[in-house]
Amino acid sequence: MALQKTLGIYGGTFSPPHNGHVSAGLAFLRQLKLDRLMVMPARIPPHKPDGGIEPIHRLRMTQLAFEDAPEYGETLFVSDWEITRKSVSYTVDTLRFFHMQGYQLYFLCGTDMFLSLDKWRQPEMIFSLATIAYVRREDETPAIRQMIDDAKYNYRIKYNAEPVEIVTKPIDISSSQIRAGLAQGDDVSRWISPAVLGYIRENGLYLPDERSDPNE
User: Fold this and answer.
1) Cα distances (Å, whole numbers) of residue 213 to 20, 54, 207
2) Which sign does the torsion angle of CA 45, 46, 49, 51 carry?
């Protein structure tokens, strides 16, 4: 019997996608030796703000952010699956669909999302459908490490889950900080790729008093 192919799913708002997202996604793909990684911007994210940016813009920026990775188009893909659905992007629905396609699933989340997973929709189903991978930064404080360890213990007892750890070099930035910097006219070029920054400027995104889509 053939082994199931492994599929990693990396969801998020990606508004905008930055170097930390790319670093985490590549570490996920490489450290777990996944057969395939799908980076999946959410259409209507239930957990995080998207900055009021149309999903099609976030999808295109995510494609631009990852396109220079050597694995892009081979084992790494940016998916529009959640964006093309006309509903809130609940992780459990995404995992259920791809589990039915026969994949062995891994789901990547950052520390903040990992610590709140048991508050998501149908957490018991999430843990049964996929192995949860979480990004652990090299510069974490002892307090954060303890919170992560406590969450792992709780998930093991409550859901019989065994989350796996992905270690990356710290890139201390968030999308919300980049949005604020762009709105103030700050130089954010060290945090996002030239292609993404060019797209943002071309389409007038994240600027004060500018609409998300100049064609609206």
Assistant:
1) 25, 7, 11
2) positive
Query: What's the Cα-to-Cα distance from 169 to each of 108, 129, 135, 177, 184, rounded to whole Å?
Result: 16, 29, 10, 19, 28
Angle of helix 55-66 versus helix 19-31 axis, rounded to 10: 60
The number of residues in the chain equals 216
| Dihedral angle of Cα 163, 128, 46, 23, to the nearest 10 degrees | 30
Give 7's strand partners.
36, 105
CA proximity to 197, closest of 40, 13, 18, 9: 18
Could you check whether the bond before residue 46 is cis, i.e. omega within 30 degrees of 0?
A: no
Q: Tell me which fold the domain 6-203 belongs to.
A: Rossmann fold (3.40.50)
Q: What is the pLDDT of residues 12-45, one digit of tens each?
A: 999 999 999 999 999 999 999 999 999 999 987 6
Q: Note the pTM of the prediction, 2 decimals.
A: 0.90
> Pick from 139, 213, 191: which is nearest to 21 by CA?
191
Residue 85: name the closest of 106, 121, 55 by CA: 55
- The domain limits of the chain are 6-203
Do 168 and 31 touch, CB atoms closer than 8 A? no
